[in-house]
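hey
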């Protein structure tokens, strides 16, 4: 029987990073992949999504640039060309992932790997043994079980639509829903975003949620709050969707962006002692050990924080613990920054005002909502929001939040400062870069009441 020190199931961000780093420590490593190298992020997630976001943002440029002296003929958009170029770029990245594995001396199996019992995996009719098995199978979009839900697509299929629809209903109010609604709207599609809550992106700071909800509506998306779809039916031109509030709408396409579930189908979990949470996530301890000795799991399949950079860090933590002979440590989940590539972007690090008030007695809020310089002579209406949450007692910055252009790029640097324990006094003593929006974070002097 072929034997490895480490057998990784899933060649997504977490799996590939773990495989390569373990191999770099001299371990004999294999990785199995049944779908696409690079996982969700590279193939049907972060990367193609960001390319689509760029595509849709260009549509605003001709109008915005008029005030700056530019005139264009009516611009036209070609979806097929975008799709072809996106596919080429993703193919290139797939190739890079495969090459990285080959160059790291990792054995690659293409096929569906299944846990087959103590320390063994079966794949393509072969049984393989390994000292350690790592599950990094990721997640999969879920659709609410309503009549006709099979007629709707998810983010997975959106990336391969052969035609750009004219009218789309996006259901959900989280990361994917607001990002996709922004893409569609920017590409000129009549877009309706339907969410069961009263404002978008639950879990973010309430000011951020209010600001984004208003800005998204201002951008031309029909934001339809407080309702869920009850039934989807096919009609002569597309689909008719009935809502729980009694109203309905007709569209060419329905996209569910209603969350992602850990992917453990056909994994052979039943052949092991692995325990699953109620939502199907593999339960692991701080060192990513499952309840089956020698079997580990990380990334979206453990459903801690569904973000690519988190899976990468988890992988590095796993390799340090298992292959570097260092004292075992858990992963530091504190102060993970994230961005939503909605239009406008949202980015955040640290505590929301609401969470800060639960944990600290005296919280100070610094906030600014303004029209960025670029919006002045472009005649744009978009407003930027910046917010700092401070613990008055220690002067420590607890949270930084932004809605506006390049929010992700700006917050990334402040996330490092927050990891170092930045105080409000240090922010105040930092000289701004002028004229930028980011300088607002170091020039906000007067706290607001809430
Ligand atoms: P989210 O959890 O962000 O959002 C799911 C949305 O669907 C929520 O608004 C939720 O409502 C709603 N919803 C859930 N179930 C139902 C239902 N039965 N009927 C109606 N609405 C429902 O998931 P996404 O799918 O947007 O994204 C999955 C994860 O992927 C994200 O959480 C994020 O971690 C990651 N991601 C990160 C990105 C980034 O970093 N930029 C981009 C895309 C994804 P409610 O709020 O009421 O629960």
């Amino acid at each position: 029987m072929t034997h490895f020190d480490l057998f990784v199931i899933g060649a997504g961000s977490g799996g590939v990073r773990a495989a390569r780093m373990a191999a770099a420590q001299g371990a004999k490593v294999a990785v199995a992949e049944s779908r696409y190298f690079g996982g969700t992020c590279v193939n049907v997630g972060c990367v193609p999504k960001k390319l689509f976001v760029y595509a849709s943002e260009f549509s605003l440029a001709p109008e915005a640039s008029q005030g700056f002296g530019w005139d264009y003929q009516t611009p036209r958009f070609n979806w097929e060309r975008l799709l072809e170029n996106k596919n080429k770029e993703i193919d290139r990245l797939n190739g890079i992932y495969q090459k990285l594995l080959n160059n790291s001396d990792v054995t690659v199996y293409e096929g569906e790997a299944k846990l087959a019992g103590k320390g063994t995996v079966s794949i393509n009719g072969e049984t393989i043994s390994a000292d350690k098995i790592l599950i990094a199978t990721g997640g999969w979009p879920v659709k609410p079980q309503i009549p006709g839900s099979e007629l709707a697509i998810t983010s997975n299929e959106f990336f391969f639509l052969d035609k750009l629809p004219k009218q789309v209903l996006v259901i959900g109010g989280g990361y994917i829903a607001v990002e996709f609604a922004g893409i569609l709207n920017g590409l000129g599609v009549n877009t309706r975003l339907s969410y069961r809550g009263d404002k978008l992106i639950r879990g973010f700071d309430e000011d951020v949620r209010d600001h984004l909800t208003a800005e998204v509506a201002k951008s031309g998306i029909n934001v339809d709050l407080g309702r869920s779809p009850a039934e989807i039916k096919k009609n002569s031109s597309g689909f008719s969707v009935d809502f729980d509030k009694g109203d309905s709408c007709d569209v060419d396409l329905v996209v569910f962006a209603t969350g992602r579930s850990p992917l453990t189908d056909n994994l052979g979990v039943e052949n092991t002692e692995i325990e699953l949470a109620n939502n199907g996530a593999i339960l692991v301890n701080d060192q990513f050990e499952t309840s089956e000795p020698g079997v580990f799991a990380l990334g979206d399949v453990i459903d801690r924080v569904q973000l690519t950079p988190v899976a990468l860090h988890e992988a590095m933590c796993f390799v340090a613990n298992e292959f570097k002979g260092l004292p075992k440590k858990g992963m530091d989940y504190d102060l993970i920054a994230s961005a939503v590539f909605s239009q406008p972007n949202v980015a955040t690090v640290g505590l929301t005002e609401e969470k800060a008030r639960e944990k600290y007695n005296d919280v100070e809020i610094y906030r600014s909502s303004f029209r960025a310089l670029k919006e002045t002579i472009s005649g744009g209406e978009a407003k930027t929001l910046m917010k700092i949450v401070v613990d008055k007692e220690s002067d420590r910055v607890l949270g930084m939040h932004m809605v506006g252009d390049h929010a992700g790029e700006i917050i990334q640097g402040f996330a490092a400062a927050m990891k170092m324990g930045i105080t409000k006094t240090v922010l105040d003593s930092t000289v701004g870069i002028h004229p930028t929006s980011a300088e607002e974070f170091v020039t906000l002097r007067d706290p607001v009441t809430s």
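The radius of gyration is 24 Å. Residues 79-103 form the longest helix (25 residues).
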